[in-house]
Amino acid sequence: MLEIKNLSVSVQNKTIINSLNLKIERGKKVAIMGPNGSGKSTLSNVIAGKQGYQINDGQIFFNDINIFDLDPEERAAKGIYLAFQYPVEIPGIANSSFLRTALNSIRKYNGEKDLNTREFLEECKNLSKKLNLDTSFLSRDLNTGFSGGEKKKNEIFHMLMIKPKLCILDEIDSGLDIDALKVISDGVSEYSNENNSLLIITHYQRLLEYIKPDEVHIFNEGKIIKSGDYSLVEKLEEKGYQEFV
Amino acid sequence: MYLKEYINKLKTGNFLDEKKWLDQNAILETISEEIPGSGTEEWKNFRTNSIKETSWKVLVESSIKQNYLKKEQHKLPNSICFIDGHYSLEASSLRKNSDINIFSLSDYIYKNPEFKSTLFNKPSDYAENRLSGIKDKKPTYFISLNSLLSSGTVIEVEKAKNISETINIIHSFSNIDSEIVINPYIIIVCKEGSKVSFQEISQNVESWNNTFKEIFISKDSNLTFSSLQERISKGIKTSSINCHIDENAKLNLKVLNRERSKEDIRVFLNKENSIANISGIILSNNKDESDVFCKVTHKGQASKSDQKWRLISAKNSKTAINGKICVNKNAKGSDASFYSKSLLLNRKATSFSKPELEILEDDVKCKHGASFGEIDNNSVFYMQSRGIKKKDAIILLIHAFINEIGLDIEDDSELSKNLIDEFFNQINESNSLYE
Fold first, then answer.
1. Domain residue ranges in chain A
2. Of A17, B155, B175, B209, which is least surrounded by CB within 10 A?
3. Is the pTM here over 0.80, yes or no?
4. Contacts of A87 in chain B (CB under 8 A)
C-alpha cells in the first residue's frame, strides 16, 4: 500500500530522514519506535504532505501513485489519514460540522454525492458512544477546551468516520491514562482489517501491547536501524534504545 | 443648497425654530471647525479627505424622489424604511398591532415635552477629556451636523411588551447626486419592561451617509440592536450611536462595519445593574479603512459591559477599533471588559486596536486585551490532512474567527451571513488571500 524509496528529508539544511526505505503492505500494522528527535514525526508529516520540509531524494508511493505530486487534501482523499500528536484547536467551528465538511470534500474529490445528514449524525452518535465520548463534544468547537485524552479520542473518532486506507498514528498514546489508552486501542482495533494499514509511531510499548503490530522498526537519526516482529518491542522495553543506537 | 451656504445662513441668526432644544450656537461653533481627521485621536485611523474636499449639498424635502419609494421597496418583512435619510411610510412594512409607534421627533416632543432634555443638544456633553485638561468637541462634529440637518424620527416600543419578531430598519438611497450629505436621525425609545430586537441595514451609498441614532432603554427592558453595513463602493459613511441604559436594563449591540465606514458608539450605563454586551466584526479590503470608536461609560453601580471585537483586514486595507471604558466615581462594583482580535490576511494589511481605561472608582473590575495574527499554517494543514482544500480551509478558518464571538451569524440572521459571505467572495475572487 505504501512504499518509501530512498527518502532523504532535511529542514534548514539539517538532515532529518536519511535514505529511508519502508514498505507497508495492505492489512498490515507497522510500528516505528525511536527516541526523541529521531525523525518519526517528520516522517508522518512528510507522508501527509506538510510544507516546510526539503525533500532531497527519494519517492513515496501510495497504491502505486507518487504522492509528492499531490496536495495534502488529495492525499487525504486518496485514503491517507494522519492522527496528530498535537491536534490543533480551532474555536468557532463545531466538531461535527468540521467533520462533515471534511467528509464531503473527500466524497466530492472521489466523485460521490454529499452525505445524508441524518445518517451522518446517527453514525457520529454511535461512534462517540463506543469511544466513551459525551455526545456534547460533537457540538463543541474543534478540539477547543478538550483535555489531552479527548483530543486523542477525537482523532480516532475522525479516523473511524473518514475510514481511510492508511492511518498514521503519530504518538497517539502520549499523555493518555490507562482507561483512555484502552478506548483508543479499541477504536484502532475496530478500524483495523485486511484492507487497511496502520503506521504506528510511538515511544512506548503500552499501546503496542493492545494493537500488536506485525512489524516493528527502530528508528534513529532518520533511518531504520533494526527491524523485527513484536518481540523487538519487548526487547526494547527491557534494554532501552541505548542498546540499539 | 450647499452645506456651507446652509450653515452660513444659520450663523447669521436664522436659527431653526423647530429645534429650540438644541444649543445651536455651540453646534454651529463645532461644525465650523475643521472636520476631524488624523489630528483627532478617535478619527486618526479613518481618512476624511473625501469629506473635506467635497462641496457637499444638503438634501431638502422637495428633492426627495417620491416615485423611487415604491419601486425600490426592500423585500425584508416587518421593516421601517428610510429613503435618503427620511422615514417612508409607503416603503415600510411594519406589522399592524406591532406594539411599535412611529412619530416625527417634533410631534413626539410636543406630546412629551420633557423628552427633549434627554436628547443630544450640545457637543460639550459628548466631548472627550484630553490629558491636557481640554474638552475636545471635535469627535462630536458628525452628530452635531446631523442634529442640525435632520428632522428626526422616533420609534417607540410600548411599555411591557415582548416583541418576538425582529424589526428591520432599512436605509435605501435613490440615485441622488453623489455630492449630497444624507442625515438619517433615528431615536429609539424602549419603554419600561419591554423586550425587542432591531436589525438595521444600510445599503450601499454613493454619497455621504451621516447617520445618528439615539437609543433609550428604560428600566427592566432588553433591547438588541444589530447594525449591519453593506459594502460601500464609492460613497462614505459616518455613523454615531448613543445608547442610554437605565436600571436593570440590557443592551445587546451587534455591529458589522465595512470599508469606507466609521462608526462612533457611545454607551452610557446610567443606573444600577445596567448591562451592555457589545460584539462587532470590522472588515476591510482593498485600500480602504473600516474604523470603530466604542466608548462605554459606567455611571450606575454594579453596571456591566463586555466588548468583543473581531477585525479582518485584506490587501492594503486597515481595520481599527478604539475601545474606551470609563468608570465614573461612585460606579462601585462595575465590571467591564474589552477584547479584540485582529486577523491580517496579507502582508500589507494593517490593523489597529487601542483598549483604553479611565477608572475613577476603586471597587471595580476591568480587563482588556488585544491580539493580532495571521492565518495559522498548522490549522490549514490540519484541515488539509482531513481532505479540505487549502482555499476552503482558509475561508473556514476566517469564518471560525468570526463565529468565535457568537454574533449568531449562522442561526440568527441570514442577512448578516450574506453580508459576510459577500466579503469572502470579494477577497476570494481577487485571490488576495494567497499573496
1. 2-243
2. B175
3. yes
4. 382
